[in-house]
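Running low. Invent one:
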Amino acid sequence: MFHFFSSLKNHLSVIVLRIFFIAPIVGYTQSMPDIETDILVFESTPAGIIASIAAAKSGRHVVMITSHRHYGGMRTSGLSMPNIRNRELFGGLGREFHKRIEQYYIAQYGIGSEQVKDCDEGFMFEPNVAEKVFLAWLRESQALILDEEYIVSVEKKGATIVSVQTNKKRRIKAKSYIDASYEGDLMALAGVSYRVGREGRDKYGETLSGLTFPPDKLGLSSDKIQRYVYRLCLTDSIGNQIPIQKPKNYHRATFMIDAVMLESNPPSSLRQVLPLNRLPNRKTDVRVGEGWLGGSQYWPESSLSERELIAREYREYAEGYLWFLLNDRSVPHGVKEELRKWGYAKDEFTDNENWPYQLYVREARRLVGEYVMTEHDILKDRFKSDGVAIGDFHLDVHPIQYVALPKVGDKIRHSYSQGFASEGSVWEAVEPYEISFRTMLPKRSEADNLIVPVCISSSHIAYSSVRMEPVYMMLGHAAGVAATMSIEQSVKAHLLSTKELRARLIKEGAIIQINNRK
């Protein structure tokens, strides 16, 4: 039923320089050829792809290693909406990705087509289109890609990473390393400082961090993190539909909290329980399974095989939730009828039972570098002399756990929802802010040739705004350029001239400074 990322699969040809190999079976021990390169990029997230392209454009030899067989992270696994408020503040190679999306639809359907209109300048797109665009772009870059391979150990000399060892017993030696994974696996193996969970409010003097409930524990630290979810691609086009089926492990009891909430506050439309974001060709990007809290806590420090099991649990929950909405007595009839029009898109995720390849990991490990970005950098000190990217999404933390409410006699002291409260949510509006280059750098004494554009050095609260794919892509662009410059100038990343780095990014179309500085 389920296809794990480590399963044997046929490899997809990407570029001429690519190394072909047979995926390992259990017990496979044959070593693969060692590689020496300028820059090693770990994981094929949008940040990793952009970093690879940025460095390769400058003439660097780049190897991108990924544990997956499909590239693009969440951009090719259902997250098909922009998550950016002001597009005028989004430039560089990240913006070029969206321009390429728009050009794809124009070439395929014509400039006046409904598909071009629905793609909204390339910011709304089908997952398979995003993957096609990424693959074509990577082919142009001539970066070397090693897929279904991952790093198992790191060799260091002092604070310098010398090489990495992969699960295929391949040694890869590079001058500069970029960890673009959602989980920060490379930086963890490299032994740098990082954090999982929420700081207390006293750690950085933040006003929004820590527990949000109950009142007597407000602001305390917690090792739990916000929920994950799957972003499905559904369609109401009958000719392109796979019907929603009852999962084998479906149990109504799993969704009793949902049933209670629906009965106490009945929705009048499907959109109140499933946010449907319109995509070209009658498809939608929809978050499914938001009600399952807790599994995310174990993901960051788990092995790949353990993550496969967690992802399977999330999938079973999401599949079950769709069936629950279609059939449960607690769901209003009108909502059921609306959902019956939808099914899985037959032409998406075709080698994975039409299910997204990637679980939406909203937050995992976070680097603790020499500079830690906090809510103050977003709400107050918004301008940075070494800024390399701009964020403008609100502080957005999804629920983290359910907390049982205390009772007084036979009555519940706070009537949130039939005896429990959803803890952890934060939503706070922000103005555009600049992101320091230093947030991507580990402590100099721990790693001096590693750049981290996704799991940046940030508090939990600050990360809740930074954690958007457009920002990851901007930071990936900066990471690729910075790694290139450090090699060109024979200096460690910490000693780079940020003035020169910023000038180079601007020359490449990046927007790194807010115009209304005061």
